[in-house]
Amino acid sequence: MRLRDRCSRPSLAGAPPPSPPPATGAFSPRTRFDVSDSIPRSYYLGHHHAALRDISSRLSEVGLVLECRDYRVPITSWNPILDRAIAGRARIVVYTHRDLGTDSPREIEQALRRFHRGQTAAGGTPAPEIRHVAQGIDSLTGVRALVVGMPNVGKSTLLNKLRKHGMQKKPSVARVGAQPGVTRKLSSPVRILDSEKDGGAGLGEGVFVLDTPGVFMPYVSEAESMVKLALVGSVKDDRIPMVILADYLLYRMNLADPSVYAKYSDPTNEVNDFLQGVASKTGKLKSGGEANAESAADWIVKQWRVGQLGKVVLDDVNDEAFREKELEKAGQGPVSMSQARKREKEAKKDRALNKTKAV
């Protein structure tokens, strides 16, 4: 695995190591985030299902899959059903939005290297990795590749960067947007690397990439994972209240470095106090001067999404988290709402039976 632009400074991302008890009056961040049961557990829409079907039907035509995962949520944005759908094809895992993740990536990238041992993974624009894999395929007709991933993970942006980098073409060929759902169907093939006659040695007719719609998971077992995916923009902003997203962002910023929001508020665990400070500084007020919490939350979340409020990786990136995700991929975790309800019902029966035996 190769992830470029590494930094040797210690990481602030994920859960911090245990620290000594704070001095009297010192700020102490929350160590857990309590997520409401009202959080939806899916964003699996009709065009996601259609896209998954189309991706599966086109696999026989492609020699390479570029699977995009968001560097800010490298585990949560790994989609098990998409993973199973593209099994058997050469794959490069591309971590997008790396510039928004953390300034201190050493620990995260060490964990990613351990996890991807024997696989190809990259950050940024992976043209060298694509060229290497394509030359290994060595097809006279060139190589067709699919770029896949969760909604709004950066697939279309990656395609545009690859075309610009590999072909020195400036015009964008794939539409991009701040909300998920911009790409609704598979695109036409776009050349990103030249043919042999134009200098692409070992590439046949060249490398062509097809953009695909984002595919969400039918069911997300952890409500906190849904909040993370909404915070990075994989879920439309009207599905989970912005105040909840701002509260989760506050929780993660406090674990990393509360000074990143010092211009808006003193360190706090109270989202209402935090949003009051944001509203006062940005003019997000109702008539009468009362803070408009929703408007302030919307503004602060969007600031963070574009890197204007510190850089925080939302997942706790460690070997145990990867093992749990592997179990989910292998089908040992619920993949649909009905399966989840069935398993919960069975668990309740088992608990009741064990309670009866104990009596």
Describe the structure.
This protein has 359 residues and is of the alpha/beta class. The protein contains eleven helices and six strands. The protein has helices spanning 46-58, 80-85, 106-115, 127-137, 155-167, 223-231, 242-256, 271-282, 293-305, 319-329, 337-358; strands spanning 64-70, 90-96, 120-123, 143-149, 190-193, 207-211. The protein has a six-stranded mixed sheet with strand order 3-2-1-4-6-5, covered by helices on one side. It starts with 45 loop residues before the first helix and ends with a helix.
Using brief descriptors, characterize the structure shown:
single chain, 359 residues, alpha/beta, Rossmann fold, Conserved Hypothetical Protein Ylqf, Chain: A, domain 2, six-stranded mixed sheet, 6 strands, 38% helix, 9% strand, globular, Mitochondrial gtpase
